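[agent] plan:
  1. take the single chain provided in the ticket
  2. run structure prediction with default settings
  3. attach structure tokens to the ticket
  4. add a short note for the reviewer (M.T.)
[agent] executing step 1
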Amino acid sequence: MIRSIIRGGICAIAALSIGASTQTLAIGDFVRQTFAHGVPFDEVAGYPATDVQPQLIAMLASTSDRTAWPNVATVLGMIGDARVAASLIDFVQRGDGAVDVTEYNAKTNALFGLGYLLNRTRDQQVLVYLTAGRSPFSESGDRRNLQLTLTAIRALGISGTEEAAAALGRVQTLDTAALDALSRRVMSATIKDALRANQQVRATGLPRYLSRSR
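[agent] step 2 finished; step 3 output follows
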């Protein structure tokens, strides 16, 4: 009898422990984690977008949350609605001059986030921004930053839309004479990879593509 009670108590405690460990983290705690292989889409998808979106937008505007900015930008792109586009674009454009590694990574993730967003919303504002070829990291508004341009190209790829594929095709025809030989090769290879990713996302869907690429 006593053994049965003890066994029952142990099982109940174990069940409670398992339940606690599998409960969803608050979104603020979730984005403050470190993810060795990138933010997991399947976990992000469990959060109700309309509930967490305002908090994430506020975190993206708060310097006290700057270490979480890269994850915040990614999550907003993964589950946000069309209202998120302006916040991500404003974040990428915000500030001038040099940025540190955390902010650079966050701005880069925001561009990828725009690609995720374009996949779901087909927002023309996002498509125009990603194909504009202008860089908030450049020293002047007229000078293109190659790394940002490459990131925007990759974002068009993961969007998986036909409009993005067409835009990538147009990018292939742009005059790159101003770039050095290495940069031209990198640009060409990046466009080809983005077109391939675009086709894969269209064929399998973005969630499956992201789960396979982790």
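[agent] step 4 note for reviewer: Confidence is low (pLDDT under 50) at residues 1-23, 135-144.
[agent] ticket updated
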